[in-house]
Design brief:
alpha+beta; four-stranded antiparallel beta sheet; three-stranded antiparallel beta sheet; DNA/RNA_pol_sf; RVT_2; Reverse transcriptase Ty1/copia-type domain-containing protein
Length: 253
């Protein structure tokens, strides 16, 4: 669900002034400015004003705001639950009750100018595939993009994210590498851990050395990238062992 002209739906409380836009200058007062009554795209107050407007509407409809994630709203109705997640002017929502989902879509369309995007397939770099067997979330496109960005797409593939033969340390005597590039690689991989927890430990270990990265650190990061070369379309399957769930199996298939 996408809100059209989202930032134009709210009056702003602060005093904000803008220059007269070209074509709308006052012939009588050419040197004066306009005082905004409602938010526009551009001022920093606009996103906050829009969220305040949307939050007020959702709370009025009976939703409860998440205690940790303030952009998550929950509605319980007759044993069913509707979940709504907001990211600026993009909204994803879902629940087991078709009637509850349809009712929410109608309420939002009456209150705001909305466009329904259909079944969720892509959101913030996450690709979602829904089917009878369950919901599969992956980042195949994002993975290909970062491999291309750091020119790692044609690298020799690896089967493990870390080397077991050498321990990663500060390596103060090693050759320094570009800090900006190293941090960019780390940041790209950190976002990938949203759907690839199997690389999280290796990425976080390399992230310790962002202040003063060395050649050995960059090689370790590149190894994580090389793990993705042939695993772009792989799925991570988790399964518990024994009734106490004391063991855990994680397989790439």
């Amino acid at each position: 669900m996408d809100v059209k002209s989202a930032f134009l739906n709210r009056f702003i409380e602060e005093e904000v002034y803008v220059r007269q836009p070209p074509g709308f200058e006052s012939a009588r007062f050419p040197d004066r400015v306009y005082k905004l009554r409602k938010a526009l795209y551009g001022p920093k107050q606009a996103p906050r004003a829009w969220f305040a407007r949307l939050k007020s509407f959702l709370l009025k409809c009976g939703f409860v705001m998440g205690s940790v994630d303030k952009t998550l709203f929950l509605l319980s109705c007759g044993g069913d639950t509707l979940i709504v997640q907001i990211y600026v002017d993009d909204i994803i929502f879902g629940g087991l009750s078709h009637a509850l989902v349809s009712s929410f879509a109608e309420q939002m369309s009456r209150e705001f100018e909305m466009s329904l995007m259909g079944e969720l397939q892509f959101f913030l770099g996450l690709q979602i595939k829904q089917g009878p067997e369950g919901t599969f979330v992956h980042q195949a496109k994002y993975m290909r993009d970062i491999l291309k960005k750091f020119e790692m797409g044609d690298s020799k593939p690896m089967t493990t994210p870390m080397s077991t033969n050498t321990a990663l340390d500060a390596d103060e005597d090693g050759e320094a590498v570009d800090q900006k590039e190293f941090r960019g690689m780390i940041g790209s991989l950190l976002y990938l851990t949203a759907t690839r927890p199997d690389i999280q430990f290796a990425v976080c270990l390399c992230a310790r050395y962002q202040a003063s990265p060395r050649t050995s650190h960059r090689q370790a990061v590149k190894r994580i990238f090389r793990l993705q070369v042939e695993g772009v379309d792989n799925a991570l399957i988790k399964g518990e062992i024994e009734s106490q769930w004391t063991g855990l199996i994680a397989l790439l298939v």
